[in-house]
Write a structure and sequence with these properties.
Layout: H1 2-21, H2 26-40, E1 42-54, E2 64-75, H3 79-88, H4 90-102, H5 106-110, H6 115-128, E3 134-146
Antiparallel strand pairs: 1-2, 2-3
Helix pairs in contact: 4-6
Length: 147
């Protein structure tokens, strides 16, 4: 008597779950996942090369030069519009980035990850550019050169 009851429960479970299994459209689920992946894919965008002299510090009074080549990570589908905006805002960006570079102090230079330095530059770009499009900022090259 126990076995027919177990078989009946198994058959009922299979019927309920089997009926629910066909209640989705696999093609639309795949398309949705693909579209989300395309919308969220990040690519690198060149943000430029900058070189400027830092103001002399009050401590050691020695001049120093900073040389930076940067890139930003941006959602892939926004890159063409962002490249156009970078061209339009080129002079303003250059001025703002140089001002931000010249605010660098000894503590920031001593940080191996350059966290404060990186955040300041990212803030400059996302303030000047519309809709704060840059997700993160990286350096291809950073050099602090004592003169």
């Amino acid at each position: 008597m126990r076995y027919p009851r177990a078989i009946l429960c198994l058959a009922l479970t299979t019927l309920v779950l089997g009926g629910a299994a066909g209640c989705y459209d696999s093609k639309s689920l795949i398309d949705e996942v693909r579209n989300k992946a395309i919308r969220t894919r990040l690519d690198e965008l060149d943000l430029g090369y900058f070189r400027t002299t830092l103001p002399r510090s009050a401590v050691d009074d020695s001049p120093m030069e900073v040389e930076v080549e940067m890139y930003g990570t941006v959602v892939r589908h926004k890159i063409p519009a962002l490249e156009e905006e970078l061209k339009e805002q080129e002079y303003r960006l250059r001025q703002e980035v140089v001002i931000a570079l010249r605010q660098t102090n000894a503590n920031e230079i001593a940080d191996p990850n350059l966290v404060t330095f990186r955040e300041r530059l990212l803030t400059v770009y996302n303030t000047v550019l519309e809709n704060a499009p840059i997700e993160s900022l990286g350096f291809r090259q950073v050099r602090f050169i004592p003169l």
